[in-house]
Known about the structure:
Blueprint lengths: L2 H32 L7 E11 L13 E12 L4 E10 L8 E9 L6 H8 L2 H10 L3 E7 L2 E13 L5 E9 L5 E10 L3 E14 L5 E10 L2 E13 L4 H5 L29 E6 L2 E5 L4 E5 L4 E4 L6 H14 L5 E5 L11 H6 L3 E5 H11 L9 H5 L5 E4 L2 E5 L4 E6 L10 E5 L4 E4 L17 H13 L5 E4 L9 E2 H7 L3
Parallel strand pairs: 15-16, 16-17, 17-18, 22-23
Antiparallel strand pairs: 1-2, 1-11, 2-3, 3-4, 5-6, 6-7, 7-8, 8-9, 9-10, 10-11, 12-13, 13-14, 14-15, 19-20, 20-21, 21-22, 23-24
Helix pairs in contact: 1-3
Amino acid sequence: MSRISLVAVALLSLVAQPALAQDAKTVIATASTAMGADGVTSLTFYGSGANYNLGQSNSPTGPWPRVNLNDYRRSIDFGQPASRATAVTWVAPPQGTPAVQGAFNQLVTPANQTWAQQLEIWITPWGFLKGAAANGATTRTQTVGGRRQHVVSWNAPLKSPGGQAYRVVGYINAQTNLVDRVETWLENPLFGDMHVEAIYSDWREGLNGFRFPSAIVQRRAGWPTFEAQILGAEANPGNIQDLMTPPPAPATAGRAGGPGGPAPGGAPAAPASTSERLADGVYRITGGYVALAVEFRDHVVLFEPGPQNEARALAIIAEAKRVIPGKPIRYGIVSHHHLDHTSGLAAAVAEGITLVTHEDSRTYFERALGAPRTLAPDTMSKSGRKPVIEGIREKRVFTDGTRTLEVHEIKGLPHADGMLIAYLPKERIVAYADMFNMPAPNAPPAPPTAGHSAMAANLERLKLDVDTVISVHAPNPDRPIRGADIMGTLGR
Length: 492
């Protein structure tokens, strides 16, 4: 190419850049006008809906569990920026006990300088346009789902723990100029760079031409985490300060991370791990969620290798190495897929531990642990190791000819499909998670929960001779639990 041609291309590029910037401004301004959002500095809307508990599904292939939200109201003050959402909740515990009434109260203020909090403002249709206008958005036009869309992208001023900018992408219908969808990404200890998507549909017109979506669905990690059916909305309400002020006595708080569950990342350091020798080469590791370390001839097996967070998992690994030195931790048995029991699995993968889970959960973990982890690099991403996951069905036996460890599937449990327990037949030790909590000594008798009955029924079905019972959630007060204690509380 001639020098003259190169100069022409360079000049054309310089001319095109302002045109693209102007095009983005035009798209944003046109959408704002179509939504009746020009001059809107605050708003409130109300209806009913549902919150979903991220990572706590009954099935690893099913949706997150639902909590109904009645009398839902949300108010946003873009000048602060701040947001407050309230609702009445009804929670049906998986143990089969009656539903419990509670309160949802989510407050996002300028002090909440995490993207887990702030995204609740900026992925709303109105917040998205304001963020795009203030943060140098770019745009392109493409067909998405059969519709022509203006795809508008911008970076939030906040940075991730890994120093990355949080990207926000909105899809504006080229025909209606209304926001159809907004997406971003948020760090999560299990799901990595977790996709967050908000879908807006069935737009209606309220007072003074202000338009609002009557249906909202937010999805995280592929499943809905929040939805609402909006009955009415008002722009610039005169009582916005009253709407934004929490009551003097705080109600039962909504989860800190907003509709999607607890805020990922930033977990406090785990307390120091200690251990208790149960038998030769068998240790109960405490200091948080409990783990069980079992010594074999040339390796170690952990039951519950990655609970709570990365710090807790690292503490468990360190304590297992201390009490059983010189042998690699080869396998980690994951009791079930719930987020509070798996948020430290990245540390186990970094250690080179093969994860053993129920076959129904294997694809779930492969997808979660195989996701990019650029927003908050962890020990796994830094190590360069990839997860190795083995699935089992009803039973697997680990043995070296001297010691035997059995892994069994628990059946008929409402709390989680594919729950696994570990059993040492020679030592008569069983380790389990989440099926029930032993009542305090001398506590008045209470009706057994569904999980309690399932535990007892499975021990009988499997014909396990149990003396010592190890719960991932230590009893309160912490004390030895015997197999006879479980059956005794059921009158068996």
